[in-house]
Amino acid sequence: MALKATIVVGNPKPKSRTLKVAETLVEKLLAPGTYDLEIIDLADHTAEIFAWPSEGMAALNARVAESDLAVFASPTYKASYTGLLKAFLDRYPANGLTGVTAIPVHTGGDLTHAMGPTVNLAPLLVELGAVVPGRGFYFVAGQMDHLDELVEQAAAEYAANLARLATVAGATRAAAASLSAPVA
């Protein structure tokens, strides 16, 4: 069974550089052929993101919540993530992302707000129950010529963190009990 990966992009501009950064991160982090990737470009859903209720938005939220890995990417707006991404995340109840490993990503014009994904977006993802395996990733948009190299470094850091978490998970009582429990 393939790992389910999802990218959620909060850039109001469709098919943005922010999307490219997030896609490259997934490509560098996960082995080819081991995952199915869904991309949710919120710019394509602006007509209904503030509609309550919305079956379409509820379906998108559910698909993200069923992901093994979700990358939440946003350009930096006013030292934080966009309102578009916030509106999407506000649709989740408490612990609505439990079981999801989430990586917060920001893009920006310079390093002024490099801590943005770590201090602004990561706490929200944790509040929603997701596991964030390290610092958020910040990418300076002017470095697109070095995209592969910079993203590969970030992916290596996430992979090392996830490997350490897997080691701890393997040693926990709960993991051992769930592995030996009969399947109903």
Automatic annotation (TrEMBL):
Transmembrane segments: none annotated. Residues 4-141 form the NADPH-dependent FMN reductase-like domain. Its EC number is 1.-.-.-. It holds the Pfam family FMN_red. Keywords: Flavoprotein, FMN, Oxidoreductase. It comes from the Bacteria. This is NADPH-dependent FMN reductase. It comes from Herbiconiux sp. A18JL235.
